[in-house]
Design a protein that fits this description.
This protein is about 20% helix and about 40% strand. The chain is α+β, with helices and mostly antiparallel strands.
Length: about 220
C-alpha cells in the first residue's frame, strides 16, 4: 500500500516532487471486504501538504479524488453495506468527505475540527450550540436519515440527508449557521485533499431580513 501511495506521485497529479509521510488504514464496515487507505503527502521542501486516499478491495484499488463515481460503482456491484446505523454513518462521513462541491468537500463535523467564532455576531452562540450537537442517524423506512452539521467552503450548515442504496447520500434540507466559520476548508485538487484558508468576512454574515408582506403594508396604509 505504501508503494501504491508513492506511485501516485506522478505528473498527472502535479506531485512529482512529493513524498509520502504516513499511511493510515481503516477496515470499512460499509464496504464488503473494503479497506480505506489514506496517505499524507508533502513537497520535498515542505512547500505543500495534502492527503490522498483510496479504497482497497481484494482485486483492485478505487482512488478517491473528489467525485462520487467510486461509491456508485461499489453500489452497482452490491458491495455497500447499509444494514446498521454504524454502517450508514461510516458511509455518510466517507462519502461527504470524499466528494467535492463547487467550493470544496462536504465535511461532517467531528471532535477536533477547527472552528472560528465571532465575538460580536449575535448569532454565534446559537451556531456554536448547533455545531456541538452530535451527528444523528435514524431509520426512515427506506434506509437512514443523517442529521449533521456540515462544514462546506467558509460556512457551516445544519443539514439533513438521506442515506440509502437508491440515492447513496442525498441532502434534503439545509440551513446556514451564522457567526462561526470553519477554521480550515478541505478541498480536492489534482486528486488529493488539500486545506485552504476560510474567508474571514463570513464571520460577519447574519440571516437576511424577512420580506415584508405586501398585504399587511396595504392594511397599514
Amino acid at each position: 500500500m505504501t508503494r501504491y501511495a508513492g506511485a501516485r506521485l506522478s505528473d498527472r497529479w502535479g506531485l512529482a516532487e512529493g513524498r509520502v509521510l504516513a499511511v493510515r488504514v481503516l477496515p470499512l464496515a460499509c464496504v464488503r471486504a473494503g479497506i480505506l487507505v489514506e496517505y499524507d503527502l508533502a513537497g520535498q521542501l515542505e512547500n505543500w501538504r495534502a492527503t490522498g486516499a483510496f479504497i482497497w478491495l481484494p482485486n483492485r484499488f478505487l482512488p478517491l479524488e473528489g467525485a462520487s463515481t467510486p461509491f456508485h460503482d461499489l453500489n452497482a456491484e452490491g458491495a455497500l453495506r447499509l444494514d446498521t446505523a454504524a454502517q450508514a454513518e461510516q458511509l455518510f462521513r466517507l462519502f461527504c468527505a470524499s466528494v467535492n462541491g463547487t467550493e470544496g468537500a462536504f465535511y461532517p463535523m467531528r471532535p477536533g475540527f477547527p472552528i472560528l467564532r465571532s465575538a460580536s455576531n449575535p448569532h454565534a452562540a446559537h451556531a456554536a450550540a448547533q455545531i456541538a450537537r452530535p451527528l444523528a442517524i435514524t431509520p426512515d423506512g427506506q434506509g437512514w436519515n443523517a442529521d449533521a452539521t456540515i462544514a462546506y467552503a467558509s460556512r457551516f450548515f445544519a443539514a439533513r440527508f438521506r442515506v440509502n442504496a437508491a440515492v447513496l447520500v442525498e441532502m434534503i434540507d439545509d440551513a446556514p449557521l451564522f457567526g462561526v466559520i470553519p477554521g480550515a476548508v478541505p478541498i480536492w485538487r489534482n486528486g488529493v485533499l488539500q486545506i485552504a484558508a476560510p474567508d474571514p468576512t463570513e464571520l460577519d454574515n447574519v440571516p437576511p431580513e424577512p420580506e415584508a408582506d405586501p398585504a399587511r403594508q396595504e392594511d397599514a396604509a
